[in-house]
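Troubleshooting log. The previous structure file for this entry was overwritten by mistake, so regenerating from the original sequence record. Sequence copied from the archived sheet and checked twice against the printout by T.R.
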Amino acid sequence: MSLENRIREHFHKSIQTKQAAVDVMAAPITRAVHAMVASLKAGGKIMACGNGGSAADSQHFAAELLNRFERERAPLAAIALTTDTSTLTSIANDYRYEEVFSKQIQALGKRGDVLLAISTSGNSPNVMEAIKVAHQAGITVVALTGKGGGKMTVQLAVSDIHLCVPAERTANIQEVHLLTLHCLCDGIDHLLLGEPV
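Regenerated output below.
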């Protein structure tokens, strides 16, 4: 296969994954938007966490809320728990890497907040620990996963929302994760601001 055809295959596979995801994910994304807006309106915040590319997605999402997405509006309360290297490395060094997000949630989270827990495999130990602590604090979890949801599936509460990309390939899952984050940002703005003028 030529390089150009290989590139075309990447595009086609991404399109196919998104087409398969839309019917499975549109309704839970809608529920996630409503949960996030309810939290923000009540004075809560959205915390996001993940590893690697999911850490970058956490930061991307928090930036879109705290600054703005596509429309001018007041800043919205959002924190990526992946950005403070001193905090992350001190927790990992003094305790366990599995606690790098959960300790931050213990300190910063409160009942009524929302945790966006991102894990492509659904098996990230530190994200699972974050979910456990979020539940203890009365924080709603929106889990963004793929590959069937992994171990996180059985950890989620009835009140949580699971956004699971129906795919196995990490790159395609991450591509749908980015689209999902943009849907969340647009949906939040839509509910808070109404239709664009």
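The helical segments are 3-41, 53-66, 85-94, 102-108, 125-136, 152-155, 170-193. Archived copy saved in two places this time.
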